[in-house]
Amino acid sequence: MNFRYLMPLAAAVVMGTSSCVKLTEDPKGNLTTTNYFATQKDLDAAVSAIYQRLSVDGAWAFTNKSTSYFGADDLTTDKGLNKQDFREFDKLEGTSTNEGLKAQWNGPWSAIYQANNVLLNYQKVPTTDANSVDARNHSAGQAYFLRGLCYFMLVRTFGSVPIVDKQAEISVVPPRADVAHIYEFIVNDLKQATTLLPAKWSSGADVGRATSLAARALLSNVYLTMAGWPLNQTANYALAATEADAVIQAKQYTLMDDYLQVFRTNNNAESIFGIQFNVGGNAPNRSFGSTSVPLEETALDGSGGWDDFYPEVNFYLNAPKCKRTDETFYTTIKLRNADNKTYTLVNWDNPLTNARHPYYKKFRYGVGDGVQETDNTIIQIKPSTNKTTDVIRYAETLLTYAEAAAMSEGNPSAKAYSAVNEVRHRAGLPPLTPGLPAAAFRDSVVYERAYEFAGEFGQRWFDIVRLQLLPKVLAARSTTAEQNKINSNSLTNPGPRYLAPIPFGDLSLSPGWTQNPGY
Known about the structure:
By secondary structure, the protein is mostly helical. It has helices spanning 40-54, 84-90, 101-121, 130-158, 179-196, 212-226, 236-250, 313-317, 323-328, 394-409, 414-427, 438-452, 459-466, 470-475, 488-492, 504-508; strands at residues 271-275, 329-330, 332-336, 343-347, 359-360, 371-373, 378-381, 389-393.
């Protein structure tokens, strides 16, 4: 790890000093640890800074947050253009010098050290009554939640990483911790968050802040992951089911009636936790709008698509026939005519298109500030949106419960069927076949997850990793339609590609560290 990430992040540009996760600069972020937490307002500013660390291009604001997840079948990219970072991992030949990989490494570490700053100093804030104690505890709970989330992203992406939970000397390089210990650390952080956070914030001004239910939903996913590779601790299926069921039974979340509206609204009924963005506050989300728009699509005002990512052809062709599929994928490409006023509509595989791929419809619109279009005209294509990135959706919790309950009990119960069928019903699909054995039921739920979360921030990739599905996924990949051909060595030995390499710059500054196998 680069030494600059070992230093405590006391000087932070933060998002706001009120309880709301705002995206405007606050000079209190520049205070030092000697006078930092004099008041709850100071602490609120420091907590807001953790969220802000994740809402920039160098973290989770742009497509590069998914760079190493392009090995999955729900993501591919152009054979040329400026897509080299994504293309490397799409071909399963990623490198430690990949520039896009830095967002996956630096972003979480930056947030972790700001969280450490809060957790090491929050008790300095004086309290006078029960309300002030609660406010201080809520700040700590958010820091625990965000630190746990960031470590969860790091360990699933890079494997063994250091555990740093205190200020570190600049000359000290902490060792990479055992993966099992990292998961224990994550579990402990999320349990702390569960006890310190409210199940629901009392004020609408607190939108975007983590809750105890968000911590439990995340914990259920952590336990589900621990039941798979590399730990294979199958006893954790039961724990995953328990945590997911607690969120379900709280009855605070429901699925949106229309799948596409999940991606056209912010903080909706099924958003358990999301990263907030604000174009006006200089914190735009650039993972929506232009990024999944075909290169050859040009709006009436001259703006165009970026062609960053789209699904593999067979992933699209193997999708279930349902309303959700229609709302997920964009298959009719609008080509502006020579008159610059009208459009010709062609199918995704038409030779006139650049990629001959379907695209993602659900990432086009943002909250009305991405692609603005009619059925036969594109008015404007914007790259910067205010769309929240939903990190945890209620649909995930339902599917986590269904899989974990079936695997822990040995057979899927009626309750497990009910959970997966709730997701299928919204998708426009019939109930899942009754009477399936546990393994077949699990496979059906994983298939459901693939299309419910298609293209969403590593969701598909993490299922591929924990269940070791790369051989199956690679065998299903089109050998003719895909522009980026898989590295031949990775085809015969895909195992090392389940983990991304440690970025070269950080590895070279960390004596005693060794690179992940295969890089």
